[in-house]
Structure formats: structure tokens, C-alpha cells
Amino acid sequence: MSTTATQDLDAIAAAAAAAAEPFAATNPRERAAAIVAVAAALEGAADELVAIAERETGLSEARLRGELTRSCVQLRLFADTVVDGGYLDVRIDEADPGFVLGPRPDVRRYLIPLGPVLNFAASNFPFAFSVAGGDSAAALAAGCPVIVKGHSGHPELSARTAQIVAAALADAGMPHGVFQLVTGQQEGVAMLKDPRVKAGSFTGSIPAGRMLADIAAERPAPIPFFGELGSVNPVFVTRAALEERGDAIATGLVTSVAGSAGQLCTKPGFVFVPAGHGLDPAIADAAAAVPEHRMLNQRIAAGFADRRAAILAAPGVRVVAAGSVRLDQDGHGWVTPSIVAVSLADLIAGRAELLDECFGPLSILVEYDEDADLAAIVPTLFEGNLTATVHAGDSEDAPALRALVRVLTGHAGRVLFGGWPTGVAVTPAMQHGGPWPATTNDSSTSVGTAAIGRFLRPVAYQGAAEHLLPAPLRSANPWNVPQRFAPAGESASWGSASR
């Protein structure tokens, strides 16, 4: 992948900075129409883009077409979010000479775009978390120019996608510089350090994400950095759930682990099951039916092969489905799913060898005794995760189960019941984030309409004349956005709602 020249980096940053103010000022319907135009352009180029992605990533055509559809759906979802205007969080306090603490001035607050955003594209989602993925969609919806650092795992796709997105935005009348691409690892770091960049987003490994987050924090003027890093996504299965639907749990596990060769941030890495669960035959049969799948690139394949070998060699590990790794003449890895089992005691004893994330189609069954206090054990084993899952009986409501759910709520960004964490729905309520090391910022999400909030900051106007106010704060409300009013005189009744 060729890298962006130093002089071009400066020009890109300058163009993004110049576009920031006019783009932020665009009428909501115009900005939304531009975002919808991007989705339509990507759909129009689907055959071309999917063919490139299939060649560069080894992912299946069906997976890639579904992912491209997801990207277009989230673009349209954000377009509607922009038109709705609720994300601006407009608050208007009317001037109140009788305010209980003394005369109150007219104060009006809302959220404004941060400015140019640098998005580091991910390798494992060449559409949904790459050039035109969720981070780019959220930043554009917020009114921020976007600079994407393309991923070396799919360079041709990155360049072509950026061309399509930039052309669609330009044709829709958006300012020059509102969407651009840079390439090269050091070039991405240099752009993150540029004072004209006001926020960063990233999906990838813990070491790379931590390095970039530290760079963002150590700038002379630190900037927000939203990194999605590592997650092992533990799953907990009760005896009652096994008795009700053990075979479905076995096949569901294999499907979740094997999907896209396990190269998903939400893949279930550890599945806690009661000792004597009896799932081995069903798991082995389901895994044996999964065809070989190519991994994204040679580096990921080599890393998976090493990590899998270390897990298989760890004390106490029992192979349920061996799976396979085959490296071709180019170093690409072709894999089938591996499922192993270990007792809870051996997991605790071998935590140094077993607890780290294995990026690929491998999962560890952790066999626990019925009297094990899972709620107490979880914090000793795991840091933060994107997800945690509970498979319980349909009517199960034991104190230990409630305690486990409470612990998982503090441990993960999304708690699932009866399902599997792979397949993140693009919906307004979705939370895709979690405590460190799942993300660098556990108060945000990278999926769902709340993701727009990462690229906004609040500002208040006090005592401003109507004609000097931005459109969302004017009493005439020309953008027709939701406005929350605090009328004069209401302070005298504060506290009455609790009576």
C-alpha cells in the first residue's frame, strides 16, 4: 500500500480544517441528503466493491454483501438522526428575574461538531468499520469532516471506497475536504498529532490502540480518542438452560465462533458450562461441518496459529473439536473452528496462558462446579468486555443468577440473554463499547445513533440576541429541532415532583 506524501498530509489537514465550519453549518436536510447519497453510491458500486473486498480479505461474497448493506443502513439511520435533531440536545433557559437564586439570564445550550475527525479503519470489517463504516458515518452526521487512515489489509478497496464517498458528498454540494483518505502507519500517526485534527477513532489491537490513545492524550492540546480494542466476551450457561436447549446452545456456539473465521470483536472466547455438561458430541459434530475459511491476512493467520498452539498445549486443556490451520504458499491461513475445554480450577491456575484474546475461530469451554460463585469469580478473571452473555432457564430466577447479571452489567457494554454476541444490530439503542480494554472510553458506543455524541461538544450562549444565535437555539427554530425549555418562574416549584 503506497503512503501519503508529507506535503499531501498538510494539504489534507488544511482542507479538512477549512471544511469544518461550512460543513457544521449545513442545513440538517442537506447534510442528511448527502449522507443518503453516499449510501446510494455505495450500493450502486456494490458489485465492484465486493469483488475487490473478496480478493483482498478472503471473506465470503455473502458476508461482504451483507456488510455493505449494513454500512448503507447505518448511513441512512444517521441521516434520519440528523434531520430529527434530538442529538443536538438543545436546552433553553428563559430569562427569569424571579429565579430563586437571583435573576437568571437567558441561557441556551446545544452540541456542536468537534471539527476534523481521524478514523483509523479496521481490518476485519472492510465495509462496516472501515472507510465508510460506522465511525465515518457518525462523524459526518455530527457535521465533522472525516480523514480516514486506510487499512493495509484492503488497500485497493480503501482507495476505491474513499473515491466513491468523496464524489457523492461533492455532488451533493458538501464542502471540499469533507472526506479524505491517508495511507501509511507513520502517516496516520503524524495526522493524529496534527493540531487541526480534533478527535480520533480506532478499531484494532490493544497495543496499537493504546499507543494511539496515548498520542492523542499527550498532544499539547489533548483530543478525545475512541478506541475499540480487545474483548473475550464471556458466556455463562446454567444447568437449567442446558436441560432445556443443550443442543441449540452447542450449535449456536459453533456458529458464533466460526463466523468469518472467528475474526470478530464479539466472538465468544470463553463459555462457562456446568461440569458434566455433555455437549462435546454436539459441538464436535457442528464444528466438523464447518468448511475451511481464509483468514484476513498473513499476519493475523500467523498470530492465530501461534495462539492456538499455546492454548492447546496449556495444562488441563481438553480438545473438544481440534479444528485446523493450513498455511498456503503465500502465508495465508485457512482455518476451521477449534473448541477446547478446561476446568475452572485449571483456568485460574493457567490464566497467564489462557486468558488473553485469541483472534480467530477458537473458544474455551470453562467447566464449573454447581456450587461455584460465578459472580465473585468474574472480576478476578476478566477485565472489561464489549459483551457478556447469559444462557439461563426460561423461568430461572435464582439469587446467584441475579448476582451474576449485576456483576456483568458493570463489566460489559452489552449484556445478552439467550443469544450470541456476534451480529451487532444497527439500531438506535445498540451499545457497542465497554470498560477497558474493550474500549478506551467506556461512556460511548461505536454502533447505534448514540455514536454521534462522540464527535460533539457542548456550548452555551448567554444573553444573546435572537439574530446572533445559531439556528437550533433560536426561538423561531428554523431547523425544527427538539428544544427543551425551562420557563421563567418554574424554579419556585422545584422538588415538587418527589412529593
Automatic annotation (TrEMBL):
<dbReference type="InterPro" id="IPR016162">
    <property type="entry name" value="Ald_DH_N"/>
</dbReference>
<dbReference type="InterPro" id="IPR016161">
    <property type="entry name" value="Ald_DH/histidinol_DH"/>
</dbReference>
<dbReference type="Pfam" id="PF00171">
    <property type="entry name" value="Aldedh"/>
</dbReference>
<dbReference type="InterPro" id="IPR015590">
    <property type="entry name" value="Aldehyde_DH_dom"/>
</dbReference>
<keyword id="KW-0560">Oxidoreductase</keyword>
<feature type="domain" description="Aldehyde dehydrogenase">
    <location>
        <begin position="5"/>
        <end position="401"/>
    </location>
</feature>
<dbReference type="InterPro" id="IPR044151">
    <property type="entry name" value="ALDH_KGSADH"/>
</dbReference>
<dbReference type="InterPro" id="IPR050740">
    <property type="entry name" value="Aldehyde_DH_Superfamily"/>
</dbReference>
<dbReference type="InterPro" id="IPR016163">
    <property type="entry name" value="Ald_DH_C"/>
</dbReference>
<dbReference type="GO" id="GO:0016620">
    <property type="term" value="F:oxidoreductase activity, acting on the aldehyde or oxo group of donors, NAD or NADP as acceptor"/>
</dbReference>
<protein>
    <submittedName>
        <fullName>NADP-dependent aldehyde dehydrogenase</fullName>
    </submittedName>
</protein>
